[in-house]
Amino acid sequence: MTDPRVVHLIDDDAAVRDAVGLLLRTEGFKVQSYDSALAFLKAAPTRAEGCVVTDVRMPEMNGMELIAQMKEQHISIPVVVLTAHADVPLAVEAMKLGAVDLLEKPFEDDALIAAVSAALERRNAEENRSRESQEIKSRLASLTRRENEILAGLLKGLSNKVIAHDLGISIRTAEVHRANIMAKMRAGNLAELVKMALAANTATTTGNE
């Protein structure tokens, strides 16, 4: 069970780590501090929990390089970037790499708390979508060959009559299979069924890229 309120704080300045860490802990976050990006990468599992708060200018590996490396290593947690030298190109680069926010030092305490909260909310939303996707895939896997054929017809917008004709079965049989599909997929209506099937297909396609 992961802890959704974990913040991985990365900064080579011990005074900043102490100050920011104290602020976050005061707000109820569980803080894990690192004095470098490499230290974090060495300690972080592939599916690290919570979010990252990182400085930009650090020796060996800067904040932008860290985000890029996280993507390469499939460490899919949101990142908040802190910098004393914010400018438009840096902000654009951070956002393109997938950072949730970029805060310029010195920043207001409330701004950091809001950014971290937004990052954690994004992570929770992504985890919920992932769980829902897995559940839908599991339901799809429970369909029989004939039910998959019926589903394929429904996704093409075909009527029960046309599907039955194409498969060489009675309309009544097609209706029974359709009802079984709806029950197995836990879909309240056809629109919901189509949405589920498309979402599962999109997740599979994205995962194979």
Overall description:
By secondary structure, the protein is α/β, with parallel strands linked by helices. The protein folds into 2 domains: 6-131, Rossmann fold (3-Layer(aba) Sandwich); 142-207, Winged helix-like DNA-binding domain superfamily/Winged helix DNA-binding domain (Arc Repressor Mutant, subunit A, Orthogonal Bundle), CATH 1.10.10.10. The chain is built from 9 helices and 5 strands. It has helices at 14-26, 37-43, 63-72, 88-97, 109-141, 145-155, 160-167, 171-185, 190-207; strands at 6-10, 30-34, 51-55, 79-83, 101-104. It has a 5-stranded parallel sheet, with helices on both faces. Helix 5 (109-141) packs across helix 9 (190-207) and helix 6 crosses helix 8 (171-185). It is elongated, with a radius of gyration of 24 Å. It starts with 5 loop residues before the first strand and ends with a helix.
Which features would summarize this protein structure in a list?
Rossmann fold, 9 helices, five-stranded parallel β-sheet, single chain, alpha/beta, 2 domains, 209 residues, disordered C terminus, 5 strands, Arc Repressor Mutant, subunit A
